[in-house]
Amino acid sequence: IVAVHRLGGHWSESWTDNGKLWRRDFLPSQLPSARIMSFAYNLDTAFSIAITDIDDVAMMLIDRLDGERQLEEEKKRPTVFISHSLGGVVVKKAGYPSFKCQRSTNGTRH
Questions:
Q1: For 4, 20, 42, 102, which has the most beta carbons within 10 A of its beta carbon?
Q2: Neighbours of 14 (CB within 10 A)
C-alpha cells in the first residue's frame, strides 16, 4: 500500500486525524501482512518556475517502488495506491505497474 499526498501535503501529516497516523496506527491491524509505505514529493513551486514537474515526480515514484521491490516475490505482490488530489495525478501518470510500460534490461520504458 502506497500513500501519495496532495500538493503542499506532507508524507505523514496528510494522513493524520487527532494526532493518529492512520497508516501506522490503524491500517496494520486491519491488513497485518501488507507493506505500508508513503511517497513524498515536493512541488511547492508548481505555480512558479518549477524544476520538477509531475512527469518527473511520477518517474521518481516508479523508480522508488522498483528500488523497494527487488525480489521476484515482491514484484508479484499487488500494489494499492491511496492518493489525494495531485497525488492521484502523480499515480495516474506513473501507471505503476503498467502492463503497457515495462522496464527493459537497459532501463528504457516500452
A1: 4
A2: 19
Band of residue 36 on the pLDDT scale cut at 50, 70, 90: very high
Cα–Cα nearest to 97, from 73, 83, 71, 76: 76
Q: How far apart are CA 47 and CA 86, in angstroms?
A: 13
Task: Find the helix packing angle between 54-68 and 86-94, rounded to 10°.
Answer: 70
**Distances in whole angstroms, Cα of residue 55 to Cα of each of 26, 58, 94, 101:** 32, 5, 8, 14
- CA–CA gap between residue 52 and residue 100 (Å, rounded): 25
Please tell me the pTM assigned to this model.
0.73
In this structure, what C-alpha cell is assigned to residue 14?
496528510
Strands 2-4 and 81-83: parallel
